[in-house]
Amino acid sequence: MESGTGSAILSILAAKAGAKKVYAVEIDREVAKFARENIKKAGFQNIITLIESDVKKVKLKDIDNEKVDVVIAENLSTWQVTEPQIQIMNHINKFLAKKNSTVLPAKIFNYIELVQSQYRFENVIDLRTHYFEFTGIRKSKILSAKKLFEEIDLTRQNSPIVNKKIKVQIDSDGVLNSVRLTSPLQVHGEINFDFSDSLMPPVVFPIKQDIQVSKMMSLN
């Protein structure tokens, strides 16, 4: 099963790799139309079943009453802010996947860093807002080591809400005015993925008040 199939490329690759049955789920009607055309062009319409639906509404009867062996869920965003990855996988694991199914990706690691960011752009305008650290964007000054905030095992049920405190040690002097969030993945086994401009780039957002910090300080 593939959640959020998009162009259906991963479902097609699964079929090419020898999958006997693939369920590709897509909520967007126009995107589903594109996926259906690609599946037909690839000649896998007898193997890939396209389901136009919200994944969280898919029931076992929609996949021929047989739980799946492999789940591909590339509904990814940094710290799961803009994609309901956890809710989707909770539903799939509870109702649609076998107990020991293979899940791609398998784990997400949400990290936080304390940073000093420059919010004056082109020396013309001050814009204190969150931004993505795309290639070419001026990098923040890192003031702390990366701290693991939450490890999410996508083969299990996970709470979509996390409320916790962590302690982060300052490694460099500077003005703390932002936090930097990243979400590297364990795709499968020893295959890992950090980020790219198009998928889960680092996100930097400002804190309410600047804080002058020095090396070896600890902040909660």
Secondary structure: elements and pairs:
Layout: E1 2-3, H1 9-16, E2 22-26, H2 29-42, E3 48-52, E4 68-73, H3 85-96, E5 97-104, E6 107-116, E7 120-121, E8 125-126, E9 131-132, E10 141-142, E11 147-153, E12 168-169, E13 174-182, E14 185-188, E15 191-193, E16 203-213, E17 218-219
Parallel strand pairs: 1-2, 1-4, 2-3, 4-5
Antiparallel strand pairs: 6-10, 6-11, 6-13, 6-14, 7-8, 9-16, 12-17, 13-16, 14-15
GO molecular function: histone methyltransferase activity; protein-arginine N-methyltransferase activity
Protein name: Amino acid adenylation domain protein
Pfam families: PrmA (PF06325)
Q: What can you tell me about this protein's structure?
A:
The chain has 220 residues and is an alpha+beta fold. The protein has two domains: 2-104, Vaccinia Virus protein VP39 (Rossmann fold, 3-Layer(aba) Sandwich); 108-219, Hnrnp arginine n-methyltransferase1 (Distorted Sandwich). The protein is 15% helix and 37% strand. It has three helices and 17 strands.
Task: Put the structure in a nutshell.
The chain has helices spanning 9-16, 29-42, 85-96, and strands at 2-3, 22-26, 48-52, 68-73, 97-104, 107-116, 120-121, 125-126, 131-132, 141-142, 147-153, 168-169, 174-182, 185-188, 191-193, 203-213, 218-219. The protein is an alpha+beta fold. A hairpin with a 3-residue loop joins strand 7 and strand 8.
